[in-house]
Write a structure and sequence with these properties.
Elements (H helix, E strand, L loop, with lengths): L23 E5 L11 E7 L2 E6 L2 E6 L2 E5 L11 E6 L4 E6 L4 E5 L2 E5 L11 E6 L5 E5 L2 E5 L4 E4 L1 H4 L6 E6 L5 E5 L4 E4 L5 E4 L1 H4 L8 E4 L5 E4 L5 E4 L6 E4 L11 E7 L4 E6 L4 E5 L2 E5 L1 H4 L6 E6 L4 E6 L4 E5 L18 E3 L4 E3 L8 E5 L5 E5 L4 E3 L7 E8 L4 E8 L1
Parallel strand pairs: 29-35
Antiparallel strand pairs: 1-28, 2-3, 3-4, 4-5, 6-7, 7-8, 8-9, 10-11, 11-12, 12-13, 14-15, 15-16, 16-17, 18-19, 19-20, 20-21, 22-23, 23-24, 24-25, 26-27, 27-28, 30-33, 31-32, 31-34, 34-35
Length: 409
């Protein structure tokens, strides 16, 4: 076969972290505030009021005033709070570990549980409200849908899901729902609630587990995974792209939560050991205990109050109010050397410039599988049998490793 040599330029990516100003960190815990417990699983903002779900109670902070709700002073049957979702200025939905779902409107509480409603599981770890006002719940017995009167359940038995262990639900711009699971892939519901499932086997998804989901300003979903790093969907079930320890500066593949700052599109990600990872384009930064004074590096939740103010839940040290210096945001300078996707068909040629002077390169797919390709006169031929998707060309030189991204379609 004769191959047409087309010059497809690739720009180098040199991963590094940048400091762009010292944020102000305020720390609330059981020692210096009425916060009922130091493990903060979820955070929600309702106007000027901030809600914190902990392992031993629900707390709100309105300016300087705190309120705490536990089983002894409220209708809560369980003080272990796992999910929060604000509906409007007066109503908030609350998911618990063993007490089911609560709707709190001002001082009125309504409880939905296995005994008194169509809810199939009293563990509610995720709550979403779609654009039609429908409540969607992530439970350990499947996906529940509640329209105010009727309940619907998707699970292994009814719908052939790979797992009933649901972690998170987010609504897209077209009222579609993106659903994360543990070991069950991703579930997509369209606006008519038709279900499509995506997994490693079915669509090349990098990780069958996703702990958290957020949507950027274009409507594109982003997934925080426990083993594959940051994952996004460039289509509707692929092609997938991921950023991990092999192809980016990210210090861990295990992410716990994700929150996109809609004003400047910075992606904030929580980790268990490395604090908060921030991605904007191809620039990365890391907020940690060491460099900004976080009380710990195990992050459980992140919420943006504004472009500069973030609320951060930790595993063992309460909640943090983080205020970034507005002036310092101008110092978030994009790198001159970035990853720029080169788009080509299988069988075409990639030209590497400037020449790395190597005899071979490693081509890595989204599952981390490696293939050795020969280099001829600074050119790498992409084999015709390659399937479409995002790949990384890894160049190993004496003192550094360079990763280049290409897209085969």
């Amino acid at each position: 076969m004769i191959v047409s040599f087309e010059r497809l330029s690739i720009i180098f990516f040199f991963g590094s972290f940048f400091i762009y100003g010292q944020p102000i960190v305020q720390h609330y815990n059981t020692s210096n505030s009425p916060l009922p417990f130091n493990t903060v699983r979820c955070i929600a903002i309702q106007g000027q009021k901030k809600w914190f779900g902990t392992d031993a109670g629900l707390a709100s902070l309105d300016g300087l005033n705190w309120e705490v709700f536990i089983t002894t002073n409220s209708p809560l049957l369980d003080s272990d709070i796992r999910a929060l979702k604000v509906e409007n200025d007066s109503t908030i939905w609350i998911g618990t570990m063993q007490g089911g779902l609560y709707k709190k409107t001002n001082s009125t509480w309504i409880n939905y549980n296995e005994s008194n409603s169509g809810l199939h599981d009293n563990l509610v770890r995720g709550i979403e409200i779609d654009s039609s006002g429908i409540i969607w719940l992530a439970t350990s017995e499947g996906v529940s849908r509640f329209d105010g009167q009727n309940w619907q359940l998707w699970n292994i038995a009814n719908n052939g899901l790979l797992t009933n262990n649901i972690t998170a639900i987010r609504t897209g711009f077209l009222n579609e729902k993106f659903v994360g699971t543990i070991n069950g892939g991703l579930l997509y519901f369209d606006a008519q609630d038709n279900l499509t499932m995506h997994s490693i086997v079915e669509s090349g998804l990098p990780d069958n587990s996703s702990l958290a989901i957020d949507i950027d300003s274009t409507g594109q979903p982003w997934f925080a995974t426990p083993a594959a790093g940051l994952v996004t969907d460039w289509g509707n079930g692929g092609p997938w792209e991921r950023w991990n320890m092999s192809n980016s500066p990210i210090p861990t593949n295990g992410l716990t939560c994700i929150a996109i700052n809609q004003e400047d599109q910075r992606i904030f990600m929580g980790t268990e050991l490395f604090g908060i990872i921030i991605k904007k384009g191809d620039v990365w930064f890391n907020y940690t205990q060491e460099n900004i004074g976080l009380p710990e590096d195990h992050i459980t939740s992140i919420v943006h109050e504004s472009n500069s103010i973030k609320w951060i839940g930790t595993f063992d040290h309460g909640v943090v109010r983080l205020e970034e210096n507005n002036a310092s945001l101008d110092e978030f300078i994009l790198q001159k050397s970035i990853v720029f996707p080169s788009i080509l068909n299988a069988g075409e040629v990639v030209t590497i410039y400037p020449s790395p002077k190597l005899k071979y390169v490693e081509l890595i797919n989204q599952l981390g599988q490696k293939i050795i390709l020969d280099v001829y006169d600074d050119k790498v031929i992409i084999p015709e049998y390659f399937s479409k998707g995002v790949y990384f060309v890894r160049l190993k030189e004496e003192i550094k490793i360079i990763n280049l991204k290409i897209l085969i379609y």
